[in-house]
Batch of 2 targets.
Target 1
Amino acid sequence: MKKVTKATIAAVAAGALLLGGAGTIARWQATQTIDAGTIESGHLNLTTTGTGEWQDISNPDAPEPFDPTTQQLVPGDVVTFSQTATIDAEGKNIAGVLSVDQEATDLKGLADYVTVDLKVDASAQGITEETDGTLSFAEPGTYDVPFLITVTFDEGAVGDTPPSTYDQVVDLQALTLTLDQVRS
Amino acid sequence: MPKPLKFALIAAVLLLLGISAQSTAASWRAESRVDPPTIKTGSLSLLAGGAKDFQFTKLSGNALIPGSFTQAPLAISNAGTVAVSYKLDGATNSLASPTAADRALTNAVQLSIYTGMDQAACEAGQSLTGQQLYVGPLGADASFASARDLGVGSTNSTENLCIRVSILSQAPQSASGGKLSLNLRFTGQQR
């Protein structure tokens, strides 16, 4: 090997060593943990409380208790079921609208003779009745909203209501209260 | 790929992403099913002699002559779940092809319906006692003066009647040999 070649190889090796050494030169570093605490999401719950109460209001001036386990509806009867729904809303900017879906009620053979109506009471503090019939609230909190189901068996004219309406079950399970969060 | 086409593809992808992001930004919803106990409709059922269409075989008579009668007890009951008001709603000869004698006999018959009479005494053909509900000729318009009330269950849900069919003493000769298939119709209305 020529001297020049040897010298070149040695120079390259020295350079490489120098470069490698440069990487191991440490500089100052400091770390700081920022403690921002924890945050939690809120919630929006809708539950019904109590067992509810049936009443026979066929004579509005003299309402009577109605026991669906032993008593049955006949033409001309009007009975109501009252219960309370509780809205539990938590979150800084929580607001919501409560609406009623009673379209899905399937009355089957009673459809021409029985009507079912579900109304929510807007008188609870913090609840506002909107023009479209929904109820709204604008702040977090717990709201008790009474609601009333009215079942009316039309009286009809004498002999108008056929025997096919005898011993029929009125299924009210499709009545649904829906609570939607809204952003203003 | 030409540049304009690349830009168009990228823009379309961004738009899709935007739309997708929009639809997944759902707010909270809570639902509560109102689930009251089921309720049932009742029924209305008026029975005569314990059946809807009762063959009133006890009320039969052969070779009846003018001035004679046949009578038998009949129970009218409410088997429904609602209180009922009922009344006689016609008493007719139901023969399909009545002869002249049959028609003459129909016109020469008097129907009497009483309530409150002892059933055994009624069956024994004793004199009618109790409250008179109807006395008169047969006809589609034969009815009680006022409807009778029947309760539900074990509370006054049955009324025992005594039914008498008499051949008028002045029945014409043309009624002899006539037949009568009496059809009593009672109608109940929910009270």
Target 2
Amino acid sequence: MRDKAISGLVSFSVDHPRMVIAIILLITLGFASQLPKITTDTDPKHMLPVTSPVRQYNDQVEREFELHADNLVVGIVNERGVVNRETLSHIAELTRQIQRIPGVVVRDVASFTTIDNVTVEDGNLRVSPLLSDVPSSETELENLRKTLRENPLLLNRVISADGRATAIYVPLEPSANGRQIANRIRELLPKSSAGDRYFLAGDPVARDTFGSEMFRQMGLFSPVAGLVMCAALWLMFRSAAVVLANMAVAMIGIIWAGGLFIGLGFPVHIMSSMSPVFLMAIATDSVHIFNEFYFRFGEAANKRQAVLQTMAAVARPVLLSDVTTAAGFASLAAGPIVPVRVFGLLVGFGTLVILLMSFTLVPAILILMREDRIAVAAARQRQAGAALSPRLAGLGAWLMRHTKAVTLAGCLLLVVAGVGLLRVRVNNNMVHWFKPASDIRTADRALNQHLGGTSTGYLVVESPQADAMREPQMLRAIERLQRELEKDPLVGKTFSVVDYVKRINRVLHNDDPAFERVPDSAAEVAQYLFLFSMSAKPGDLNNVVDYPFQKANVWLHLKSWDAGVMRSVIQRAGRHLETDPLPGRATLRPAGIAYFNLVWNDEVLWGMLTSFLAGLALVLLLLVLETRSLRWGLLSFLPLLFTIAVIYGAVGLVGKDFDMPVAVLSTLSLGLAVDFAIHFVGRFQQRHRECSAVEDSLIWTVARPGKGIFRNAILFALGFLVMVFADLTPYITVGVLMAAIMMLSSLASVIYLPVLIKLFQRHLVKEGNP
Amino acid sequence: MKNHSHFAAALLAAAAGAMAQAPAVLDAAAVLEKSQAAFYYPGADMRARVVMELMTAGGKKRTRVLTMLRKNLPGARRQRYFLYFHEPGDVRRTAFLVWKYPDRDDERWIFIPAVNMTRRIAARDSRSSFVGSDFSYEDVSGRDLAADAHTLLREEKLGEAACYVIQSTPKAPAEFSRKLSWIDKVTFLPLKEEHYDARDQLARVFTADRVETAGSGKAAYPTVLKRTMKNVQSGHRTEVVFETVGYDLGIEADLFTERFLQQPPQKWVR
């Protein structure tokens, strides 16, 4: 049934090659017309579906406390201290200019000149911005230093403990592009710095810089990877037709899959931006068709006959390897991470398109090729192919003599890999997607060193009763929780409504430090907060308590974007609340970008683990079905398992974080790495049917199809290795790991399959001719 | 240096404008003058029971109920305001006193009943929020007309009312770029205002939602009984309703002193 459908497709293509090519071109044009609609999405929040509870709760917290999801931080560091006339006038001017940039939430820009400060002078309350006019005398400067130093609300937020750093906080409208605004701010930075160093950090810069870099690098590396593969193909086949057909198949796969997904409205994420490279690598499968065709042409000497025979011979392995590849990618759709799902389906679909091309476009091109050219190429191919590679034959013979030693070495390697697997650390850190010397990493380090921290988390205290957040008992419990959390060295600062209440209490009592505490009655708290709301920006209070005073928001500034930091904060809070619970059955709920990253991190791990297991099962099932034997299926499966164990063991041993790109690769490698084993086993079985000596057949398989396998692996690896030169670490990771997976799985197939087949030949071959 | 040249340029521009359309420039300032008189200064004194509702974009609400007393002092447009809060319950008896001067910073005092304490507040910025609402102190008691340059843009109907549309641009750099006011030609009350931020994007919109001639005392004046200030950027808005209003009631001048802040006479604040 299946074979009939394929041969029908092939003979139609052979009989009407021009029509087939025209139809394919038309369809391609249709898909290509969708490509200009491309959009990108690099917001980590969109990694989880809109319906995920963590996203919904985060949105709710942002609404209730009037928080902005996106904030830029401009850090200013001066070794002489930032409170000097020049730096202050730069800050004042810079703040004013930033407030004019479209996309900035003007009212909530926070810096020396916009933060309202309540102080007491001669018994009078004074409400004014920290800095209204740049002080002219040293006395005034010293007063400002004192004000900054003594106000815990400001410490580590707008002034570092050593007075050398300050920051301007720039919230963005939801629709604003963080990178564009960051670039505008960079243009505004004073040219003569007077010892000031400026740093720009914050989640939106990272995200949007990443988005634009992604486009740039994708645009650069996809063609380069393509060129490298073309060059390698040329060196292997010396035929323009082979190179052309390969690239045409790859391009069509990319355009159809890309056009379909862009047309359906899916934005391009970091993962799907890599799909062209993957599809080009997968398209090299058509190499097997050309390989076979040149042999057959010599025998049949009739082009039409040669094409039909070729397609009949390769249909099964091509179909099988492409279907397993597509299944491996499609199994990514079982996970919860949206961009990974899209990527899996996109490449899966592209693989099926490539498969379709193998039975339509490729035979059509073959039939249109000039016979004299084919004859030359075929002659060369026969010459090259007829000779067994002496080195590989030597390897095969050596393997046959040392089966036990080789097996033992493999087992040892697996043990080492096992140790590495145990040490794998699951972590996501978006800032680490940039290289250590990049502007973004440098700014992040500088700000984390001097101020509270660039990553933000929230702990929302929720009470069943309204007005609970005005009870002194509740405020004191929150205060104790804050002190406990601050013991974590990566928690740079916490603040809450408690800090405002204490501040007002102290200021009202003539700045007496003894009153820097929560007052004793709820009426006092209420009236202090009322006074606060009358003297500061309304937003300041709304950021820390909701309207009915039923919820309080405890802000955490974290010094690292590692997902684990928020986990340890939540655990610490949990332990603290066991001995010192919140009054009135109030509960604590985490939110904010730091918490989101944590949830996402866990989802990535479990999601990838599920898709990985699903993928493994699917690939094994396909192998068993296709070889019609449980044992042969399992055997073909082993090199893949070995490769994955060794690669991830190495990731653990090297200490590289198991992050999103690495996690996704585990599933990707399934469908790709298994191809070599399929070819090896298929060719061995064929050879074994012809000459019954198992050992000789194995040596032949290592020497001849083994060469093809290595060629294929090198072609794959070269394409991916190009990405090593990328500026973004996920591309580098994918490039290196994919190349390693390809090389290792080809080695594992060519070395361990013969060894295992020899060791277990009684169980495998005794079944009769499989 | 830079500031000087800016100033000179502004002067030149103003002079050129004055020559080109001298009557319009004069008219605009005169209209606003009359408008402030009608909006902020009617009667010798005034009392209103005010319900102020602060509403978030998400529909959450905070209500403040207060008694507002105002007395005009003779000459020079000086005024005194007394605000006494009834609700929310836990801030009852909190009171607020403002001595307003048209040409210099206000003087303000607050009484905090829970600690029985009166504090003077030196607030420099009259554009800061008035009791956490979308109104600024300036919106409540009037901005110094001399601080801005005014131009009559056009005359148009706003609903049924014929209005002057006047643009006011601050003379010194400010955090707003301009304000458009729709002034009723008959009552001279502002019916609508658009406040633009430093980027010249619409930031806040004032609307007079209900205007009636009202007054329970010896006189009645056209009064904005309901007004709304909406921050169009954040979606937050504040609605103010005068439940009762009276003019020329004979409120004693010494009520507006620190002494009475703690214990105002019941007849005025009940």
